[in-house]
Amino acid sequence: MVTSAAVARAAEQVRSQLARETADLTPEVVAAALRADGRPVGDVTVLAVLDVLRRDVLGAGPLEALLELEGVTDVLVNGPDAVYVDRGRGLELTEVRFADDAAVRRLAQRLAGTAGRRLDDASPYVDLRLADGTRLHAVLTPLARPGTSISLRVPRRRTFTLDELATAGGWGGEPLRLMRRVVAHRLAFLVSGGTGSGKTTLLNALLGEVPGDERLVLVEDTRELQPAHPHVVGLEARQANVEGVGSVDLRTLVRQALRMRPDRLVVGEVRGAEVVDLLAALNTGHEGGCGTIHANSAVDVPARVEGLALAAGLPSSAAHVQMRAGLDLVVHCVRDGGRRRLGEIAVLEHTDGRTHAVPAVRFDGSRPRFLPGADRLAALLEGAR
């Protein structure tokens, strides 16, 4: 029986020899490389080494099988000995292991190379989208501990409808009716929540509720939104190439989107200076605009927007005025264990020169609990702004 350790050692031997030669990866080439030192090698060893080397140069290598798992959203590598997946039930440690950190590094570099990006000691991290839509983030050791880190965000194989999402999250009934009314009344909103709370999934489903005769223009850093809608135009940011040129940032794309006659302008994730242009757009007649933003709670969203706007050069007072005039709601997502669900809806109110998010309704499953902002929410849903 050929042990995995023996196969790993043999694969490294062949890898070193092939690095000095130019040859196709075939069983004959592998067998010749293994027998170069005069030792007999069986067919089982040759085929096992060939399989290891092919995984090195095709797809995501040892991670390929994990990416194909049903329902997987993330594959995370923390060095050679810890590979996790998330299938909607929280992180699960898998049995996948790498021979050493050099193997993890090679995989990260190869994946980055397929997208034309450099990953080495001079440029030790990347954030990009692969050809199949998978989002790759990688950081090389020693910046990352306990070893080279790879994070793969897997695109949804299909888009969930709002009904399906509500059923999966256990928030049908009144919460579902409220969200449909938010879209139908063209209210401007941000979907907030922590990492992995389902912000993009919810926004995707909500955009699928937009009437088919409206034009959606999506602006994203990395393409994740794929709403089931007949009229969608997507703009995706681009990072600089290996020569350091060619970058196109989100702020530029938001400005371009405004010239494309959007019925609804959507910013996939608001996390930088683009917040200034989004706020400006929402104050120039572009109703129904929306996006996602990282925040611990709905109440924290105005402070988060203010901080991003200040960093972009917009005074605090102006940011608060534009928030109040351009945004109507914050829709907050939460994660209970492995389940992602709708947590609460907050309305934006302006007092003493500042905008505050006031909780209007909080959800425990399908049971709504109405809070101080409920009257304002009801007025918005009746058309009073």
| Unreliable sequence segments | none
- How would you state the average pLDDT, rounded? 86
Distance between the termini: 74 Å
- CATH superfamily placement of the largest domain: P-loop containing nucleotide triphosphate hydrolases
Count the E strands.
15
Give me the secondary-structure topology.
Blueprint: H1 4-19, H2 27-34, H3 43-57, H4 64-67, E1 74-78, E2 83-86, E3 91-93, H5 101-114, E4 125-129, E5 135-139, E6 149-153, H6 162-169, H7 174-184, E7 189-193, H8 199-207, E8 216-220, E9 232-236, H9 250-258, E10 264-267, H10 274-282, E11 290-294, H11 301-311, H12 316-326, E12 329-336, E13 339-351, E14 354-364, E15 367-370, H13 374-381
Parallel strand pairs: 7-11, 7-12, 8-9, 8-10, 10-11
Antiparallel strand pairs: 1-2, 1-6, 2-3, 4-5, 5-6, 12-13, 13-14, 14-15
Helix pairs in contact: 1-3, 2-3, 9-10, 10-12, 11-12
Describe the model.
The protein is built from 13 helices and 15 strands. Helix 1 (4-19) packs across helix 3 (43-57), helix 2 (27-34) packs across helix 3 and helix 10 (274-282) crosses helix 12 (316-326). The strands form two sheets. A nine-stranded mixed sheet has the order 9-8-10-11-7-12-13-14-15, sandwiched between helices. A six-stranded antiparallel sheet has the order 3-2-1-6-5-4, covered by helices on one side. It is of the alpha/beta class. The protein has helices at residues 4-19, 27-34, 43-57, 64-67, 101-114, 162-169, 174-184, 199-207, 250-258, 274-282, 301-311, 316-326, 374-381, and strands at 74-78, 83-86, 91-93, 125-129, 135-139, 149-153, 189-193, 216-220, 232-236, 264-267, 290-294, 329-336, 339-351, 354-364, 367-370. The chain folds into three domains: 1-58; 61-155, Beta-Lactamase (2-Layer Sandwich); 162-381, P-loop containing nucleotide triphosphate hydrolases (Rossmann fold). Helices cover 35% and strands 23% of the residues. 37% of the residues are buried.
